[in-house]
Amino acid sequence: MRPHTTLFTACSLALSAAAGTTSVDATTKNANHIFNVIHDSMRQWGSSLHHNGVSFFLAVVPAGTQLYHGTSLSTPVNGTEWLAFEPEHSLVFARPHRGPPPRRPDEGEGGDGSWEGRHEDLRRDRHDRRDDQSSKDEDAKGYLHTYAAAKHLRLLYIDGMSAAKTDKGTLDSQDALLFDNTIDMNQAGKPGGPPGERERAIRACEMAQDDFAGRIDGILRMEAGFEIILCDFERDLVNVEIVEVASHESGNDRDGNGRKGPGGPGGPGGPDSSGWARAVASRYTGIGGGRVNLNYEHFVTAFSYDLDLFPEGSVHPRLNHLDQSDLQRIRKDITSTLLTHDPREFSWNWQATTDMIVLRYSDELSYLSSDKIETTEQLSKHINKLMAPFTDFRERNASAEADKCSSQFIPHTLKDVRDIAALAVHEVAHRVCSTLIEAAAEQDLVSAQKGIKSLMAYLDWTTWKECRGCQDNEICAVPIWPMGSIEDYEQPQCRDASNPYGNGGESYWGREPRH
Ligand SMILES: *[C@@H]1O[C@H](CO)[C@@H](O)[C@H](O)[C@H]1NC(C)=O
Ligand SMILES: *[C@@H]1O[C@H](CO)[C@@H](O)[C@H](O)[C@H]1NC(C)=O
């Protein structure tokens, strides 16, 4: 059953947002997913749980924003490299390259999941590639570079956990879609050769020039922290400072087996694990500081095409099974969006609208579906109170009430707008409102609550996995590649911030990161 909508009658008119190949039907069908795409964007929490991104946004990082780069080199970068938003993220890479990473004692058993042990997985991937050419330039030291954006940086944001090198689908939107399956994974075998990462960066910057007419400066992705692949450091950044990091950062705290040396995790003055975990967790609800602005009126999402993104009952969306022609269709729409819209143009902040809806109804739905509700009277009384603002008691009309309730959060001036965000947000709001109204009218408590529970399954809001009441020394631990267990995904818990992933359990990401 699909609730009717009066404002947005479903039909197959093309959406304005993306060159006429997306459909209103698909957007309405996938409204829940698109709503979550908007709500999760630039947030470490939602993007970790919904880790397979299939969407592309125009993004701007304002001039002056400070960004970080960790390396074994003490001179400013010239060319294409990685930048982090949090200095703690860059510290992981502010170490010399010392041959292949040590084999972890736990390897082959699915990983110990420890934060410190897993640093190496991130690091061995990349960032220190340049050491191959210049290993003699520097002796066993690491440097943290601070840069500031010299202008408003125009970026293509690839959503989800798109910098996580997994085979769970986190790379589909890049490798299958954007880069047309041309990334050479065999690179992985070469010394210091990151598994396709360098090539992704090169391809992205070539596309920025050739396909996107120089209209973007790089791409924006997420792993344990948000990061930018910036094509031209020298042109787009001001170097603020370069500091040598404590020698413990240089790997002296490890023996050849990759075990921690004296001083425990990180060691005194070493890479402070709790600092990094907290730095990541502090961005759960948003990158903060107005450091990234997305265009929610003109973006491209595979969810707005008439495609099956959940092959063989996949829990998370995939793109690697799609036909070339479908991938090409989406790629063309990304290009035309980039060519016709400036990332800096004003757009309505639909994420703020999704926030109002989620914050208003998240706890209410959870409560109404719980065993704290014991009778139908209790349920309908509570729902009637929720719906009171939308009820005209002179003339009760359930469908009019659902319509009023679902347009509450949508700016009146945008009520007839038919872009992807507007359609998806309205559809989701309408589902919430109409399901509540139906539940209030049910005679039987079990079926009333069943309706609410199936609404919650449909919505799949990540707020329902948030921890409650963590202590000052704890963070809510959710799997963030390469860390975390299956249990951490199913039910994130408050964990000691100095070792949030030390509880063992089977790795969420599988035995080995992808190469
Ligand atoms: C950076 O690279 C460009 C192109 O290779 C070169 O023209 C420029 O002089 C370099 N700048 C510095 C400071 O090395
Ligand atoms: C109820 O409201 C809808 C508009 O939402 C209207 O089309 C319909 O005619 C109304 N029904 C009655 C019985 O007034």
From TrEMBL:
Residues 259-272 have a biased composition (Gly residues). InterPro entries: YOR389W-like. Keywords: Signal. Residues 93-138, 248-275, 495-515 are annotated as: Disordered. The keyword Signal applies. Residues 1-19 form the signal peptide. Residues 115-138, 248-258 have a biased composition (Basic and acidic residues). This is Uncharacterized protein. It comes from Penicillium angulare.
